[in-house]
Design goal:
Length: 186
């Protein structure tokens, strides 16, 4: 019996490869609720890719005790003065935590607690972010190249996108004088 085997997945040259890998992309047309400048949003080509996610789901979604692994690639760009960013979510099981580790590019991790307080952590290659439970999380690309990061989260965490699509984050991340600023929504 050969008891030395290859890993189920690899991450080489920035690409996740192997079986059971799920790939999605989010285009402008998939993100009607998240950007505050609706006029600027309407002017962008609907097929513009904002971000892509490759995830490894070795167990069924909802399984207690498992872990998922994913890589997110956010393209550079803005909608009006707001940076390209992810939809953002709370975990459906609110107390489930997560790690993000930045690989390439520069960005911000926006965090919002259940009281609606929002703050941001700088993301840069090598930055590691612990996202405690009960915290909505969203990432934005503030640079000129792709922002990529790996994520590790419990397989029973689930995603609550509805709360964010209805209420948003209490602050938005905008480009002012060439730099990111976290400001209150108007
Ligand atoms: C999953 C984890 C990430 C995001 C990804 C896209 O819990 O936080 O893999 O799914 O960054 O963001 P979103 O908000 O569209 O799921
Ligand atoms: Zn998450």
């Amino acid at each position: 019996m050969n008891n030395i085997v290859d890993p189920a997945i690899t991450f080489i040259n920035d690409q996740l490869k192997g079986a059971l890998i799920d790939r999605i992309n989010r285009k402008i047309k998939d993100l009607p609720d998240i950007f505050y400048d609706k006029k600027a949003f309407e002017e962008l080509p609907v097929e513009t890719i904002v971000y892509e996610v490759a995830s490894y789901f070795p167990v069924a979604e909802g399984t207690e005790g498992g872990l998922f692994y994913g890589i997110t690639y956010i393209h550079p760009g803005t909608v009006g003065e707001e940076y390209f960013m992810t939809k953002g979510h709370f975990h459906k099981i609110r107390n489930r935590a997560e790690y993000y580790c930045t690989l390439h590019g520069e960005g911000m991790l926006l965090l919002m607690n259940e009281q609606g307080e929002t703050w941001a952590e700088r993301m840069f290659p090598g930055s590691i972010h612990f996202i405690p439970g009960h915290m909505a999380h969203r990432t934005a690309n503030t640079g000129d190249s792709i922002l990529s990061f790996s994520a590790f989260w419990p397989s029973d965490a689930g995603h609550d996108y509805d709360t964010i699509s209805k209420q948003g984050f209490s602050k938005i991340l905008v480009k002012r004088n060439g730099h990111p600023e976290l400001v209150n929504r108007r």
